[in-house]
């Protein structure tokens, strides 16, 4: 798994949470979209992260904050939030690779 793939998955996860009600309402009629499986996999991977990385994942990708709004909310610089997001992506990449090996 590449960092590019993780970034793409995170974009899709963000979209899933923005439209979560629609995905849940249409499960019975259309079937479960593949993004739901990706969400479950990433949520499982993030559970072993540090509290800061966990917070960044939830805030950016589940609650749909921007890096700028999150930096204001937490009182961190935008550069620091960007650094945490990069750490998050590397963490997820490593965790997902480990999960695939098992």
Provide a descriptive summary of the structure in words.
This protein is mainly α. It has six helices and no strands. The protein has helices at residues 3-18, 20-30, 34-46, 51-62, 67-74, 78-101. It is globular, with a radius of gyration of 14 Å.
List the helices and strands and how they pair.
Blueprint: H1 3-18, H2 20-30, H3 34-46, H4 51-62, H5 67-74, H6 78-101
Helix pairs in contact: 1-3, 3-6, 4-6, 5-6
For the structure shown, list the relevant keywords:
102 residues; mainly alpha
Head-to-tail CA distance between termini: 15 Å
What is the overall silhouette? Answer: globular
The strand count comes to: 0
What would you report as the Rg, rounded to the nearest angstrom?
14 Å
Structural class label: mainly alpha
In short:
The protein is mainly alpha-helical and 102 residues long. Helices cover 82% and strands 0% of the residues.
């Amino acid at each position: 798994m590449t960092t590019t793939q993780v970034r793409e998955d995170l974009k899709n996860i963000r979209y899933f949470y923005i439209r979560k009600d629609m995905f849940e309402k249409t499960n019975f009629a259309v079937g479960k979209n593949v993004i739901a499986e990706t969400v479950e996999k990433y949520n499982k991977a993030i559970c072993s992260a540090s509290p800061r990385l966990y917070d960044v994942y939830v805030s950016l990708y589940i609650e749909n904050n921007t890096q700028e709004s999150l930096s204001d909310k937490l009182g961190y610089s935008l550069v620091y939030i960007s650094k945490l997001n990069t750490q998050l992506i590397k963490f997820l990449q490593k965790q997902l690779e480990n999960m695939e090996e098992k």
